[in-house]
Design a protein that fits this description.
alpha+beta, 37% strand, nine-stranded antiparallel sheet, Pnp Oxidase, Chain A, 5 helices
């Protein structure tokens, strides 16, 4: 029996997201999604990110601005996200344009993180070669000492991106691989809905 889908896909996503977050027994990290980007040579790249907010503005995640993902997003500001919640037999695919969040928004989120995570952001040269674990631990110790007292400022090389959706597809597992798929495509007037074959 088909499940109801709202006219606004973000309303449906919010409901699905809440269900995933409620299943802490089976889904330890419901905010995890695969982020797909493309490099300068057209080579696809993918990795898991944690989506920190999902609302009418889009899907928000944070990263080191010197990381490969950030360089790819800055060079070609389009990307895709894919959530998969196995215990719920659900998947959501999202494609759209990318925009950088404001400094104020990045500052506010950074300030909400545990101090250890703030120190980690300063210490990590994300995705750059590392001689050994001791090198990282040494950098953590240096920044922990530097910011032992008071607030830890957000590094200039750390911020957030928002994927503004242009297409959102909901996938619901059904018996015999007769899955239910519904694609929303953004238009000037809102969203078009189109059911797809499994």
């Amino acid at each position: 029996m088909p499940i109801p889908f709202e006219d606004d896909p973000l309303v449906t996503f919010t409901a699905w997201f809440a269900e995933a977050q409620a299943r802490t027994d089976a889904i330890p990290e419901p905010t995890a999604a695969t982020l797909a980007t493309v490099d300068a040579l057209g080579m696809p790249d993918a990795r898991i990110v944690l989506v920190k907010a999902a609302d009418a503005r889009g899907f928000l995640f944070y990263t080191n601005l010197e990381s490969p993902k950030a360089r790819q997003l800055d060079a070609l500001p389009h990307a895709a996200l894919c959530f998969y919640w196995g215990p719920l037999d659900r998947q959501v695919r999202i494609r759209g344009r990318i925009e950088r969040v404001s400094d104020a928004e990045a500052d506010a989120y950074f300030a909400s993180r545990p101090k250890e995570s703030q120190i980690g952001a300063w210490a990590s040269k994300q995705s750059q070669p590392l001689v050994g674990r001791f090198e990282l631990e040494k950098r953590v110790a240096i920044f922990a000492a530097k910011y032992a007292i008071g607030k830890v400022p957000r590094p200039e090389f750390w911020s957030g991106y928002r994927l503004v959706p242009e297409a959102i597809e909901f996938w619901l597992k059904r018996p015999y691989r007769l899955h239910e798929r519904l694609l929303y495509t953004r238009t000037d007037d809102g969203w078009d809905k189109q059911y797809l074959y499994p």
